[in-house]
Amino acid sequence: MNKENMKKLKISLTVLLALLFMCCATEDEQRVVNFTQLVIADEFNTDGAPNSNIWGFDIGTGENGWGNNELQYYTDRTENVKVENGVLLITAQREDFEGSAFTSARLLTKDRFEQAFGRFEARIRLPFGQGMWPAFWMLGADIDENPWPAAGEIDIMEYRGQNPSVLIGSVHGPGYSGGNAISKEFELLNDRFDTSFHVFGVEWSPDAVNFYVDNILYNQITREDVTGPWVFDKPFFILMNLAVGGTFVGSPNDETVFPQSMLVDYVRVYENTNFRQN
Amino acid sequence: MKNKKYINLRFTFLLTLGLVIFSGCEREFSDDVEFAEFPPNGNVFIDAFSAGLNYFPFVDAGADPEAFSVETDEVFAGDAAMRFDVPSFGTGFVGATFNTTAKRDLSGFDALTFYAKASQSADINEIGFGIDGSTGNKYRVATQNLQVSTRWQKYIIPIPDATPLTNEVGLFWLAEGAENADDEGGYVLFFDEIQFEKLGTIAQPSPAIFSGEDITQQTFTGSTVMVTGLTQTFNLSSGENVTVLAAPSYFNFESSNTDVAIVNELGEVSVIGEGTTEITALLGGVLAEGSLTIDASGGLQSAPTPTRPQVDVKSIFSNAYVNETEINIAPGFGGSTTEASISSANGDDVIIYANNNFTGIIYGNTVDATELNFMHVDIYVQDPGVEVGIQIRDFGANQVVNTDETNGNPIEDDKDKRFTATGLIPGQWVSFEIPLDGDIATQKNNLGSIILTGGPNFILDNIYFYRE
Q1: Model confidence pLDDT, tens digit, residues A181-218
Q2: What CA–CA distance (Å, rounded) separates A100 from A245?
Q3: Average of per-residue pLDDT across B155-183
Q4: E strands of B138-289, at which residues?
């Protein structure tokens, strides 16, 4: 991380906070927590494969399509994942591959970067169309010992390609997972997520997870809101993927455009030294 | 841990100047904002006719001018809605445009929107905007077969590209009627809150020409070919793809070899030289799917001009006569590889067939040839050894085609006469007089189509039935 980026970050954060509730809302007030110390960032400025110090890959179809009957086979081929022109491209292709009808990619920071609390954000342009299911999310780093949903999951951004103006942010844990996740949809007014980049983020403190898109705080989930144990007090790792089909989103149809990419401009993580835990 | 309180601020810029309204933080001024010549008023019919708006029924085309009224009971919002009483079959149709005498700048909008419902579920044949007689409907837009239910629903007709729409008069038009006895008619359509809007969610444009197909056409210098199948498709925030028919002037056409053909803004391709060229198009900077490759040889001679008097003739396709019916030269038979197009050279239309295996000319209405005894056709080929199979089909009393799909033979009440045109001479028109005998000698009062086999490349002109 160079200093110039740091400076830009501080400025953007200040602007962001100043703008938080300005836009088109009625009078409101809200508590926010500041996470100003940049811990890690990938600006995707080096063409080629993603930085292997930060990102690993899930390969294949998992069990039952990663538990969701997803249709794609994940690879780490350049056809499915590469950095080019300052962005990470996660590309879904319609092709016969190892018995699957689609390919795509899923990146994760497991065993590379894991952190409890902080601001996690990415600037992303999403694909569109029936059956496209991109996500920017986190899983509890102890998932190998405490299988899902006990490990916990924070979905910073999920989206259905057939609802191009609607974002979904959720947390999953024991007693509140899958269809019972604590979740909220946010509809972008007079705009969509597939036509330009948007910043998706959470500010995760020991008490709460705040969900943001651009300069809008659209949800806060606290210990009181979850219908089971609070499992968000330990390190999590980051995942980014573009799934195709599955129970959450339904199969693609004839109008779904392939290939299509999820474009990630950056991923940045900040911490607040007052409640660092590593 | 730092907790801060941020009190909401709300900025509202309200700049009327009679021209521009910006509000909230959704938009901002750019330095090069230009004040339009005409007001950017998007209202068409909210609770009354908007400024300058008038009702122009398509009376000449047979529309019922009494079909329209202003409704004050069945409204979606406010005090009034538009009401159209769609006549039952055979008694006219709803057809009108609502144009304004005060021109509008629509370039800042991305869609025409309205609420609609009907007294029964129905589909509106065509609905859109951009009717303007003074420009030849240069920026006409239509949605076809718009499904309307019995409850109020919002409909969105995207603007293919709003950039050129700076001085518009045609704000809303529709055509709906019962097309046959089984089609819906005798019901009521309501529209409310008709307006142009900037939705911001009209995205992912996917324009097409020739319905997205890559077509190759043999033609001749001096001929004119129309770019057809012009559409624009957008993805809406509902996830739905909506396709509208867009007038040619929304597109920028390109010819890869302007020594062979050029295209004007009306989508007319003029073939001016021998050779090959590819016609493509851009809409709003996006390359349209579909193309036309023209393979042009020297000039085509006109077919011999028919001399029989109109009174002895029922014409299917000829510039020499008033034709008896409209025709469909692209019936889309399953398995057909045929490309058919109408080309005009020196004011004479011909039908050019390429890569034919089998196709047909389907009449819009059946033709009664009881009093007639021949069919005439002129055929032109370029290659030696070409033969063209012609099947003159009578549909019988039920007026629909009944075909054994395994062998193409007529079944039930259908009859046909089959003829093979041989002895064709490359580079010349040859005329054929086909007697209406055989199976159709006593059943030729419901002639419905001509099936064409063979070729594969040939040109037809002057298809007509006559008596001698």
Answers
A1: 999 999 999 999 999 999 999 999 998 999 999 989 99
A2: 12
A3: 92
A4: 141-148, 153-158, 168-176, 187-197, 214-220, 223-226, 231-235, 241-246, 251-255, 261-263, 268-271, 275-283, 286-287
Q: What is the mean pLDDT of chain B?
A: 89
Question: Residue B82's CB: how many other CB atoms inside 10 A?
Answer: 24
Which amino acid is it at A75? Answer: T
Least confident of A235-249, B7-21, B183-197, B266-280: B7-21
Q: Which of A158, A187, A255, A271 is catalytic?
A: A158
Whole-number Å distance between alpha carbons of B242 and B68: 27
| Angle, vertex CA B30, rays to CA B40 and CA A13, nearest 5 | 125
How many residues are there in chain B?
Answer: 468
Per-residue model confidence as pLDDT tens digits over A84-123: 999 999 999 999 999 999 999 999 999 999 999 999 999 9
How far apart are the CA of B327 and the nearest CA of chain A, in angstroms?
A: 31
**Cβ-nearest to B25 among A23, A33, A195:** A23
Exposed, middle or buried by CB within 10 Å (0-12, 13-18, 19+), for B52? middle
Residue among A43, A114, A121, A153 flagged as catalytic: A153
The answer on pLDDT for A27 being more than 70 is: no
What values do phi and psi take at A67, rounded to 5?
A: 80, 0
- Name the residue facing A20 among B6, B199, B237 (closest C-beta): B6
Answer yes or no: are the C-beta atoms of A11 and A247 closer than 8 Å: no
Residue A8 corresponds to which tokens in the numbers above? 């830009």
Per-residue model confidence as pLDDT tens digits over A51-77: 999 999 999 999 999 999 999 999 999
Nearest CA in chain B to A271: B1
Exposed / middle / buried, residue B311 (Cβ in 10 Å: 0-12, 13-18, 19+): exposed
Q: What angle do CA B22, B23, B26 make, to 5 degrees?
A: 95
- Cα–Cα distance, B170 to B54 (Å, whole number): 10
Q: Note the ipTM here.
A: 0.81
Q: What residues pair up with B297 in beta bridges, in sequence order?
A: B220
Task: Yes or no: say if A214 and A21 are a contact pair by the CB < 8 Å rule.
Answer: no
Which residues of chain B lie closer than 8 angstroms to A31, CB-CB? 3-5
| Contact residues, B window 192-231, toward A, CB-based 8 Å cutoff | 198-201, 203-204
